[in-house]
TrEMBL record:
Entry-linked InterPro entries: AAA+_ATPase (IPR003593), ABC_transp_ATP-bind (IPR050319), ABC_transporter-like_ATP-bd (IPR003439), ABC_transporter-like_CS (IPR017871), P-loop_NTPase (IPR027417)
GO biological process: transmembrane transport
Oligomer and partners: The complex is composed of two ATP-binding proteins (GsiA), two transmembrane proteins (GsiC and GsiD) and a solute-binding protein (GsiB).
Cited Pfam families: ABC_tran
Record has Cell membrane as a keyword: yes
Domain ABC transporter: 2-225
EC number: 7.4.2.10
Enzyme class: translocase
Protein name per Swiss-Prot or TrEMBL: Glutathione import ATP-binding protein GsiA
């Protein structure tokens, strides 16, 4: 599903360039949950943003879903739909001034999907949310509820690869377990391949089939899971 060879990632701000990931090699098999674990600032989220098509400033070789990606190019066509991301902060994918129905409907309308309202209701039911929440604003939900909606937003597009950037770190401990169990169930139901970024080794141990430790922008060859 995913193969990286000698991948480096750069942050570009004006004329300043800062390489934050150096020479990463890794592979992710279909149907597995693959973990990137390491302390804050080690480059794991920066690598995930490249895989989501959100940062085109990288070098090396990436094959994703049988497609060779090219540095400097944004995702297009089916790839834009087949790779989805759940962010640490659900506000990153939920418009604060739009009702949830509008936010979730817009990408489906662009894809000319039928029965949009039914799909959204089914998505809410699948993650344990009631249909009356669909017409609320994000601020009217708890943090755990918002993250469930963010998961629905990603799954409505029927992705093949789901990227998870610290999806529970902003939540209370009791809610964290609920979200992780939910993701495990959804992985099995939808036959998803997932890449999970976390600073918490316990989360990685619980969720992932395989994982690597990152340190200072590189995979730590002495710390493998």
């Amino acid at each position: 599903m995913l193969e990286l060879n000698n991948v480096s990632v750069t942050h570009v701000q004006g004329h300043n360039r800062n390489t934050v990931v150096h020479g990463v090699d890794l592979s992710v098999q279909q149907g597995e949950c693959f973990g990137l674990v390491g302390p804050s600032g080690c480059g794991k989220s920066s690598l995930l943003w490249v895989l989501a098509g959100l940062n085109p400033h990288w070098e090396g070789s990436i094959n994703m879903l049988d497609r060779d990606l090219k540095p400097g190019q944004l995702f297009k066509g089916d790839l834009r739909r087949e790779v989805q991301m759940v962010f640490q902060d659900p506000y990153a994918s939920l418009h604060p001034k739009h009702r949830l129905r509008r936010t979730l409907s817009e990408p489906l309308k662009k894809l000319k999907v039928q029965d949009i309202d039914d799909r959204i209701e089914q998505g809410f039911k699948q993650v344990g949310l009631t249909s009356d929440m669909i017409d609320r604003y994000p601020h009217q939900l708890s943090g755990g509820q918002r993250q469930r909606v963010a998961i629905v937003r990603a799954l409505l597009l029927e992705p093949k690869l789901l990227l998870l950037d610290e999806p529970t770190s902003a939540l209370d401990m009791s809610v964290q377990a609920e979200i992780l169990n939910l993701l495990n169930d959804l992985k099995d139901q939808h036959q998803l391949t997932m890449v999970l970024v976390s600073h918490d080794p316990n989360t990685i141990d619980y969720m992932c089939d395989s994982a690597v430790m990152m340190k200072a922008g590189r995979i730590d060859q002495h710390r493998r899971y």
